[in-house]
Amino acid sequence: MSAFTDPVPPDETVREGTRRYTLPGSLARNLGLVIALLVLCAVGWFTADVRFLDGDNFVTILRFASVIGVVSVGMTFVITGGGIDLSVGSVLGLSSVWASTLATQTIAGDVHWLVVVFTACAVGAACGLVSGILIAYGKVVAFIATLAMMVAARGLAEIISNKRSQILDVPPFMDFFQSRPLGLPTLVWVFLIVAAMAWVLLNRTTFGRRTIAVGGNAEASRLAGIRVRAHTVALYVICGFCSGLAGAMMIARTTVGSSTHGSLYELDAIAAVVVGGTLLIGGRGTIVGTVLGVLIFSTLNNIFTLNNLSISAQSIVKGAIIVIAVLLQQRFANRPGSSSP
Amino acid sequence: MVSDGAFLTMRGIVKHFPGARALDGVDLDVRAGEVHCVLGQNGAGKSTLIKVLAGAHQPNAGDIHIDGHPVAITSPVAALRLGIATMYQELDVVDGLTVAENVFLGHELSTAGVSSSGAMIRRTRDLLAQLGHREISPRTEVGNLSAAGKQIVSMARALSRQARLIVMDEPSAVLDSEEVATLFRVVREVTAAGVAIIYISHRLEEIRQIGDRITVLKNGQTVAIGIPVEQTSTRELITLMTGRSEEYVFPPRPAVAPDAPDVLVAEGLSVPGIFEDVSLRIRAGEIVGLAGLVGSGRSEILETICGARRAGTGRVWVDGAPLRPGSVTSAVAAGVGLCPEERKSQGLLLDEPVYRNITLSSFARFARGGFLDELRERRAADRQIAGLQLHPADPSRVTRTLSGGNQQKILLGRWLEHGCRVLVLDEPTRGVDVGARAEIYQLIVALAATGTAVLVVSSELPEVLGMSDTIHVVADGRVVHTGPAHEIDEHRVLDLVMEGEAA
């Protein structure tokens, strides 16, 4: 290059006033997901009738959705911020094992149940901190850094647990998670509260605004004075924290801590996030979409289970849903003028 | 009307882009075995012309003849088939492949579908020998070669295609003076064998050394066709390239008060290998311009002042307080705002609404305890949009859909909203049409009038000379001249730049 180079031809001319170029409303985008969910419910109703419509069955769907839901909410932050975290499943497993080991190796009853929960969350957050520092300050590509964390955390979980499932004998812990305030299991409440807090964080705070800015254009954000690297670390810590919390929830659901917990959750979480409408390249994220994405997949799972269909057949449908959702997303991303979802 | 002995003749070439006429009747003829230089300023249409020749752009009108026969260059492959090879500015070699693989990229030699690497390596060795570069092994990975070496590979590729015309777009920009000498030797050998070269460069001295004839473009038109280099003075060439004035309208502004305090002071800044010992001071209300070539270090100087790049030595003070080196956050907090060169990749969140881009540096102010008050934020953005004469004045519009001029205004609005002591502008009017240009100048001048210090870099000399109070001429990473802007003209700047780069 040298001075006085030719400018690029103006590639984006503006046709003034012909069309309104506004962002498609998040309401409209989510409407599509709600319709998809209702269609799924209709399918469930036709194929499984009363067994699907039963109130307890809906609770089952929500309970099933809660653990992966919390993981997916954490993943939403990382992806919106322009990253990816492949380690969530392993970190979930490691957190569950760490917490259950702590509980079983101390004399039973000595451990307060909240310590179990905090331990799991802290282990998850620590894993996120390591990944985040590697990515933001070590300049390791997110895919690689979290792939390494995914492998290493699983290995550590196996060493700690000796590859055995550890039954958690902390009665208050179980009591807490098996209670049903207002008719919904605690697990579901945890998921809903996490999602609500995440929604506020992403949509109503400066932290959320920074997340969107960093994911949309990291260099522009840096030059505008945003601490991009510190923020990136914070996003991975949040994601790790959510995985840790999900680890504790997993113990509550299964009564054991196990190094096999959460395997392939990273793929389920990414699928739910992307189907929900969060852009995989970052810069746009939706918590409501993620929650709907999780519900779509757990409803799908429920329908297949009720109809005694194989997991393999379910995987095919899951794959199709992901592709369709992403194709629709790209369509709308290419047409900024469209105001439909 | 095909001139005698011309290998290539182009007549009345027109190329439109939406909203712009990049080429507006360009004529060119190139004889076999000559080095034909194409000169022209920013936006004159050189790159578009090259792309037409390379088959990357289709002209809207005009005739192209090769050896007297009318041809249409419909694709890059068609161009190669017609014997036209292009060496782009950004060297288009694949680093992970070997020299031989690069030379035969796209036309691999093969026997029954099996590539004959032996034959390719032998041919490559012959070509490299022909170019006088036996020391490059055909088996070396291209990534290990210097920029000059890569250029030789590019050249060998052109020859392997039996090119009869090689278009070289600023080949010397990435080379040091010794490598340029080698390049010229190769160019002479190739032309001696009857191959024509179209040589594009801004370094007039080089053109004097290597060129046979010159065609000058201005605003998409040919202003001089095939004039012989030897009978044309450098001054004449500069006048041909730059003869215009109405494009740059600067609002009148009062002189900076002699007792105005220094706002920005930079002392002895260097980044090893890029620039050294740069000192500047800008007083309140003063506009200071850096003139120099791309690659002279001028953009890097701006980035260092803004903390986007860490200085090896030297410090920067704003209003007497030192900035933390290498910290944009510290610079922004002190009131240093950068409107970067690459608006789209470095400046804007293209898929976000306009108002969020305006408040990107200041949104935290519209928050209580971390919670954003979006109503207040939007009201502040509305005020800026009104002051900027943004068109359309819609705060919710997706930023991507605005024109270059309006996008630049958004960046200015960001720093107006944030409140800045030092505004740093890198190519403030690149890709901005003439009308919006005048509005941007007005905004900058108005900002300076409020006591803001302004530092501006531009490749457009009339712009940087017309807008600034003080000019620093940068060449090869050093400030070679400092003085009041009204005491220096374009010719003098170009002379200084060329002397400085040659040194």
From TrEMBL, chain A:
Pfam family, one: BPD_transp_2
Main location: membrane
Key words, A-Z: Cell membrane, Membrane, Transmembrane, Transmembrane helix
CDD domains given in the database record: TM_PBP1_transp_AraH_like
Record has Cell membrane as a keyword: yes
Location(s), subcellular: Cell membrane
Transmembrane region(s): 27-48, 60-80, 86-104, 111-135, 141-161, 182-202, 233-252, 264-297, 309-328
Alphabetized InterPro entries for the sequence: ABC_transp_permease
Membrane topology: Multi-pass membrane protein
Protein's UniProt name: ABC transporter permease
Protein source organism: Occultella gossypii
Automatic annotation (TrEMBL), chain B:
Protein name: Sugar ABC transporter ATP-binding protein
InterPro entries: AAA+_ATPase (IPR003593), ABC_carbohydrate_import_ATPase (IPR050107), ABC_transporter-like_ATP-bd (IPR003439), ABC_transporter-like_CS (IPR017871), P-loop_NTPase (IPR027417)
Coiled-coil segments: none
Domain (ABC transporter): residue spans on this chain: 8-244, 258-501
PROSITE patterns in UniProt: ABC_TRANSPORTER_1, ABC_TRANSPORTER_2
Organism taxonomic ancestry: Bacteria, Bacillati, Actinomycetota, Actinomycetes, Micrococcales
GO MF annotation, one: ATP binding
Keywords recorded for this protein, A-Z: ATP-binding, Nucleotide-binding, Repeat, Transport
PANTHER family xrefs: CARBOHYDRATE TRANSPORT ATP-BINDING PROTEIN MG119-RELATED (PTHR43790), GALACTOFURANOSE TRANSPORTER ATP-BINDING PROTEIN YTFR (PTHR43790:SF9)
Gene3D superfamilies: P-loop containing nucleotide triphosphate hydrolases
